[in-house]
Amino acid sequence: MSNDYPPPPPPPPGQGGTPGGGYEGMGAMPGAVEQPGGPVTQPASIAQAVKLMYVGAALSLLSILVGLLARNELRKAVEDASAKQATPMSPSQVDAAVTLGMVSAVVAGLIGVALWLWMARANGRGRSWARIVATVLWVIQLISLLASFVRPTAGLATILGVVTVVLGGYIVFLLGKKESSAFYAAQSAPRY
Q1: How many structural domains are present in the chain?
Q2: Which of 80, 93, 132, 146 could form a disulfide with 89 if both were Cys (CB 3.0 to 4.6 A apart)?
């Protein structure tokens, strides 16, 4: 196959090609944002937030263990609630309720671990949406903790909940810092 097209014409006089492929005297494309050649450095606030998110994942794993160890407390709570009902639960119904509670605690803990790890990865990469999602998850966690004060829970579970909410609040603070915002902006800026 032969090339039937002639070579492109030389640039007009006074507008010779530049090493960057553009023409002298012509600006960048309107709306274009020039990016530095290398990757954007992750600020200390993001690095610290990511490390603390891994701590949050570990706390979620610990909450699974605490939930499993609180099986007898859960059984007592179910039996007490059943005794106050007009028709008490049978022993097999109590067993089923306890098992459901234990499975729910494990599933919730594993979802918590997955969310912490997902947020650590996404925020570490400077994804702007991840900061919003992390904040929303923290608010949900705070509401859940406040709701837990209404119902009786194990003492250690409540302490873990408070520690996790405080940790999450500090992480949200770190993600909102000025240098964090600059990192998110640089990472989400269009690249040309």
Answers
A1: 1
A2: 93
Partners of 17 in the β-ladder: 23
Residues of the chain with pLDDT under 70: 1-39, 151-154, 191-192
Residue 29: inside a domain: no
Q: What is the pLDDT of residue 167?
A: 96
Terminal-to-terminal C-alpha distance of the chain: 34
Inter-CA distances, 40 with 51, 142, 185, 191, Å: 19, 33, 10, 12
Q: Does 89 map to a domain? A: yes
pLDDT at 165: 94
Residue with tokens 């837990």, as numbered in its chain: 148
Q: Is residue 76 part of a domain?
A: yes
Give the structural domain span for 119. Answer: 51-186
pLDDT of residue 28: 47
For the chain, give the mean pLDDT: 82
Quick: pLDDT tens for 140-173: 999 988 887 776 666 788 888 899 999 999 999 9
Segment 140-145 long-range contacts (CB within 8 Å, at least 24 positions apart): 141/165, 141/168, 142/168, 142/169
Contact 75, 98 (CB under 8 A): yes
Helix 178-188 and helix 128-148, axial crossing angle in degrees, nearest 10 = 130
Contact indicator for 53, 46 with CB cutoff of 8 Å: no
- Asked if the structure places residue 111 within a domain, the reply is yes
